[in-house]
Amino acid sequence: MIGQHILSISAVNKALLDTDIFSEVQKGINPSIVTRARAYRETFGYYTISVITVLEIIKGWHKRQREDRIQQFLNVITDAEVLRLDLPSAELAGRIYADLERTGQPIGLADTMIAAIAMQKKLTLVTGNLSHYQRIQLLGYSLNLDDWRR
Fold this sequence. Notes:
By secondary structure, the protein is mainly alpha-helical. It contains 8 helices and 5 strands; from the N terminus they run αβααβααβααβαβ. It is globular, with a radius of gyration of 15 Å. The model is unreliable at 1-12 (pLDDT under 50).
């Protein structure tokens, strides 16, 4: 029953994977994430990430001077769909970021850009950082969220 539910969710909703979830997919440790990621990839044939995720992961490995891990990551994403931050997404991200700052609940520029890309492409954002992204929803933005850890 649970497996069927996961497959039906994956088949219906194309998703943008946030950096934390994509990293966990690559580690393959969390059984819930592994199961949902496998079902998603079987349905779509690839994962969808953003250029912001590429930036964040490369920054993390470069900071640790792990060029081998950067190359490994770049090899992994050759068959991924990597969405860019285009002008409409950048405008939306700027508005979200300003609204969050104005209301005293900032979440970071990278997260607002990832959320804007997901909204512009009408994708569900799969993240483990629900509390951050729910702040965007509370401002009235139509951001669909999912957490594959649950």
